[in-house]
Fold each of these.
Amino acid sequence: MVEDTQILSPTIGWSILAILSVLWLYLGYFWGKKSKNLEGHMLAGRNVGMALGTATLMATWVTSNTTMLAPQFVLEMGVWGMLAYSTAAIGLIAFAPLATRIRKLIPKGFTSGDFIYHRYGKTTWKVFLFISLFYGIIWLISMAMAGGILMQTIAGIPYVIGTTVIIAVCVGYTLMGGLYAVIGTDYIQSLLILIGVVVVGIGIYKILDFDMTYNYLEENKPMLLSVLFPAALMSIFNNLLFSVGEVFHSNVWWSRTFALRGNVGKKAFLLSGLGWLPIPIAAGYIALSSNSLGLNIDSPDMVGPLVATHVLGEVGSIIVFIVLFCSLASSIDAVLASTADLITQDIYKKSFRPQATEQQLKRFSIIIMVAIGLLAWIISIPRVGTLASVLFFAGPMVGSTIWPIITGLFWEKANAKGALLAMLLGSTLGLVSYFTLGWYTSSLVGALVSMVVTIYFTKRSKEKFNWSVLQKLNS
């Protein structure tokens, strides 16, 4: 259960929720007018420029995880937790050269599944699809949960209603405008997020007594200040590899790569990663003060918003509400669109309707998007676990895809057997680690196992892949 500790009155909370919901739905309808064909709906016409591209990448990466899990990391793991979550910037930065390589190899690609299918074959593709779809649903569930927790904690809006509204609004405007609507709303959301984070950060810096906070922690919880906190040190590498796996495998980022103009992908990913980097540090920093303030933290994933609203009062609560709503919407819409594209292109078209027209594919994508939203809503209502425990359950699986993706893009001797076993063994042993050692080890184990297996089979292979196969894809 979420404890009712709201600072905003329900009237103000409902008003903000209504205004943001109507705004995003209208913008979805407005930008949806540009979506004339399948490429427009799925990839925004493959013509997204630097400003919109950078904004949509950064806004998508500023999820509930950034604004709510980063403080949770700090609350549970101290100063190293702050650094641990900031390593997620490496995911976007490291993908920059891959974006250039992807556009060069597959100029007409639609999904990450396109690459896996033609690079490694059908069996490996099936395993990859399972991982991608499982991760997409887990990500949606974590953000739907965050929406419900946020609205009830800050404004007293019931958890179920908050979860329902955030999913319904995102499904609504994404249906109407496709990737055009996603990218357009992301641009506005990224501006609101950055402004809100700066305002909250300055306000807290001026009000909080950080000397008092440090002295309290040194006396009562010295481990949170220790540089030798084993779990925290492990979480640094685990979160880094989890974020790299998230970006490298997920169709969210592949669809952005195909949507961006060919010459801006590398710069857009670099800039978005660097622009995102200070946000989790700022979000996590305030969590250290929660104990000295005497706050009752009912749910560790709400420590950041609770501290901000407690210190800054009603004005701060309004800003936090808007920032978190925007961060949630900017990620939920991206996962909805990219997951629907993956199912439409890789399952429906490849396996059931290879001769389907663009209009039939677009119609099916819309149906699937509604179904995905409904599934995430149903699963998120019981609210099982914290955001970290829910999200990192997919960690070993996404970690296991890193090396098959990297070697498949650059090494001609990378092969299906190595990629398949890397994903299977990495996922399995990573999940064992999740349940026996803790969620902060699972991505690390999955990625390391995957690396050893992939490199072993690549070095032993005598086959060489014909890159021209990818060049002809969808042309």
Amino acid sequence: MEDLKNLATIGIFGGSGFYKFLDNIKEYTIETPYGLTSDSIAIGSVAGKKVAFMPRHGRNHHLVPHKVNYRANVWAMKEIGCKRVISPCAAGSLQKHVKPGDIVFCDQFVDWTKGKREDTFFEGPIVTHVSAAEPYCPYMRQVAIESAKKLNLSIHENGTVVVINGPRFSTKAESKFFTSQGWEVINMTQYPEAYLVKEMDMCPLNISLITDYDAGLVGDCEPVSHGAVMEVFKNNISNLQQLLYELIANIDENKACKCHTTKQDSRF
């Protein structure tokens, strides 16, 4: 019987427009205590490393952001042996200098969702408080930044992503407020995904592919539409794929990380 706990060491959640990554794959359906995952997990190899891929919205994009079963998806990645999880996502820009086609490696998030999402694995009886002060893995971010520079991609080394509930986009008033806070990126899926990854002692990494200016940055350009988002994403999918291959090749799987002891460091 195949050992499910040793299928992969690196996991990737594909976002809107990114439903397939690996060739020569074997697919697995993972049962979880939290219900069904968004899709089966495809296992393949990149640079000699075992890599798992799952489209977070499903391969046919049937799950809206607040209906994604984030706990099941993250638990499944942990169950198959992943130590690091990469979360690419289509995202909007809140600042003029962050342009469509750019990539932002976010180092912070702001949760603006509405409480419809199950956002922790730790509901008792053991009290566990996982710090979100540094929500994304510093090591993974550094490797990603260096990999992107090698490929001459247009990147921003840090940024804050505000996560809205969706599926609707922002009003102009909301977008103006988010911009006034100095936040760079807006998205609908980064919370609670990244936080749950950290709760499971895995390293989270965000890769925000900028597809549009949110709500037209209040009159400076055309407001966002789903069609426009997908067009920009399709035009830049090759950049994302090249980045992922380079990033995975450069990850040191023997590198120790504080993310791997998150749980034990969060209990009394």
